[in-house]
Amino acid sequence: MKSAITRAISWARGEDGHALAELAIIVPFLVVMLAAVCEIGRFFQNYTTLAKSTRAATRYLSNHQLTTLELDRAQSVAVCGKLACTDTDKPLLPNLSKGNICIEKTGSPKTLTVTVRIPRTDSPCSPMTGASKASAYVYSPIFDIGAILGSSFSLKVPIAPRTTMYYMID
Q1: What is the mean pLDDT of residues 23-44?
Q2: DSSP per residue over the chain, as a string?
Q3: Could you tell me the pTM of the whole model?
Q4: 13 conformational bin, left if phi > 0, alpha if psi -120 to 50, beta if neither
Q5: What are the phi and psi torsion angles at 56 (to 5°)?
Q6: Of 154, 130, 125, 123, which Cα lies nearest the Cα of 43?
Q7: Segment 57-101, tens digit of pLDDT
Q8: Which residues neighbour 126 within 8 Å (Cβ) at sequence distance 6 or greater?
Q9: Contact (CB, 8 A) for 71 and 61
């Protein structure tokens, strides 16, 4: 019995508590790093989704007449991946709408290129006739890293991909 008591006392006097203290110091940094990696991954996934949607819409417009119907269909392709978005169709990304899509063309009187983009701010979009004016799409993070760190840092930044292709008709 004496050996069990001496083992308990020597265990209590040991340095096993240091590991727990080190873990308590390191865990908050690991949580912040994990949150940052997750948010950066989500940001690039959202950017890639928007870049592919603008590419698909531009590809559609480069092979169709630039009528109001076709411009609306291109915006639908960019928003929900279909030629016609209904109320039940889910957008490719949260809060993405036709109001975020800017359609522009170059060349006059003959159209040379068609551009579909999501503007960085609300002001610089100069849409072509029949297309609506567009507003910026702002990424909405899950983790508010600024609040976690106690700073004003935020990942709520605009995502602004653009795709330009040659107009293939005429």
Answers
A1: 90
A2: -HHHHHHHHHHHTSSHHHHHHHHHHHHHHHHHHHHHHHHHHHHHHHHHHHHHHHHHHHHHHHTS---HHHHHHHHHHHHHSSSS--TTSPPSSTT--GGG-EEEEE-SSS--EEEEE--SSSSS--PPTTSPP---EE---SS-HHHHHTSS-----EE--EEEEE----
A3: 0.79
A4: alpha
A5: -65, -40
A6: 154
A7: 999 999 998 888 999 999 999 999 999 988 889 999 999 988 899
A8: 104
A9: yes
The one-letter code for the residue type at 72 is D
User: Do 114 and 61 form a contact (C-beta atoms < 8 A)?
Assistant: yes
Alpha-carbon distance of 106 to 112, in angstroms, equals 6
